Structure to design on (145 residues):
């Protein structure tokens, strides 16, 4: 849904307007693929989409951003200065998204969160080390005394 085809005439118009202004990951993915593949056609093949669908994703993203990501030179697309700056931010998004797989694995295996213990150096170097390490290696269903 692009901004131009968002019709805001309901009671909850503020909410509807926000939905229309949200960048979609599919738009960012198409932008990234175009840069990496160097053509819309190759990006479409990578994404298993039609070339017109990728062109529409790019056009809707440019409409949303209100600047051109590419300069069209004949049959070629050249990344604009704004597109280069935006790509640096998009790369951060995809780096964060790729970290979600590791986060999901940690959550599934229950290896998440943190525990902070404050102790005097004498306790932390000897007593806590001896008490805590064995409990870290216990099966998940066992409990400390």
């Amino acid at each position: 849904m692009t901004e131009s085809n968002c019709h805001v005439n309901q009671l909850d118009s503020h909410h509807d307007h926000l939905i229309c202004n949200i960048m979609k990951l599919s738009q960012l993915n198409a932008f990234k693929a175009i840069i990496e593949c160097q053509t819309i056609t190759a990006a479409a093949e990578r994404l298993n989409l039609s070339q017109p669908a990728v062109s529409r994703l790019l056009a809707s993203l440019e409409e949303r951003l209100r600047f051109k990501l590419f300069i069209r030179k004949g049959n070629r697309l050249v990344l604009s200065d704004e597109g280069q700056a935006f790509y640096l931010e998009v790369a951060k998004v995809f780096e964060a998204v790729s970290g979600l797989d590791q986060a999901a694995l940690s959550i599934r295996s229950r290896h998440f969160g943190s525990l902070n213990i404050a102790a005097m150096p004498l306790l932390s170097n000897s007593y806590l080390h001896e008490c805590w390490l064995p409990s870290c290696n216990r099966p998940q269903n066992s409990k400390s005394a």
Summary: The radius of gyration is 25 Å. The first helix runs from residue 13 to 20. The beta strands are 70-73, 76-79.
